[in-house]
Design a protein that fits this description.
Layout lengths: L2 H21 L21 E8 L4 E7 L2 E4 L5 E2 L2 H13 L5 E3 L5 H4 L8 E7 L4 E6 L8 E5 L5 E4 L37
Antiparallel strand pairs: 1-2, 1-6, 2-3, 3-4, 5-9, 6-7, 7-8, 8-9
């Protein structure tokens, strides 16, 4: 074998080794599968502020008789809206890791100054937890990050469209409920 053939054979072996290293199958990035908020229970959450990317927010607070909108004269919040949301927040897990770098927060819209939704949870012990919900790579999934952590995860348990910042999305529309079969007469009076 001539010298230049030996050099070309060596280059070929080096290229094959490089291809094997670059394209060797790797396991997918996964998180720990633990809860995003360890030891958090629904009963621990006493208030929730939801803020959108434009700065509009809605504030929900747990009162003795149930959840209310303090900024709207303690108008009752629908338990059908708040209860499932709180259960989803408590159940968030870190099993679908997307990135561990702070540099990705802006792109995924989970940064402190660029997010789709920011959820501020006040807990019974007076502490706060902040969660950022970001972009949605698919209709059913959303990126999320807990403040103070660089890791960003993907979840299908919670989406940003469930977290409207308009109070009308949270109010209890049935202020009073009376069984129809118990009604015998209804009288409606107004100022006129």
């Amino acid at each position: 074998m001539k010298r230049h053939q030996q050099i070309l054979a060596g280059v070929l072996v080096l290229q094959l080794a490089l291809i094997a290293v670059v394209f060797w199958p790797r396991s997918a990035a996964t998180g720990s599968g633990e809860h995003a908020f360890p030891d958090l229970q629904v009963e621990d959450i006493v208030s929730l502020r939801i803020t959108d990317e434009s700065g509009q927010s809605v504030y929900l607070h747990r009162a003795a008789e149930g959840w209310v909108l303090p900024d709207m004269g303690d108008y009752p919040v629908s338990s059908n809206a708040i209860t499932p949301l709180l259960e989803k927040l408590v159940g968030l897990t870190s099993d679908r890791l997307v990135t561990r770098t702070e540099a990705s927060h802006q792109r995924l819209q989970v940064a402190q100054d660029k997010f789709v939704r920011q959820l501020t949870l006040e807990l019974a012990d007076g502490s706060f937890q902040i969660l950022y919900l970001g972009s949605a790579p698919q209709y059913t999934t959303t990126h999320f990050r807990v403040e103070g952590q660089n890791e960003t995860y993907l979840t299908s348990a919670l989406t940003t469209w469930e977290l409207d910042t308009r109070p009308v999305s949270w109010v209890e529309v049935g202020y009073s409920s009376i069984p129809v079969d118990s009604l015998t007469e209804v009288t409606l009076e107004n100022a006129n």
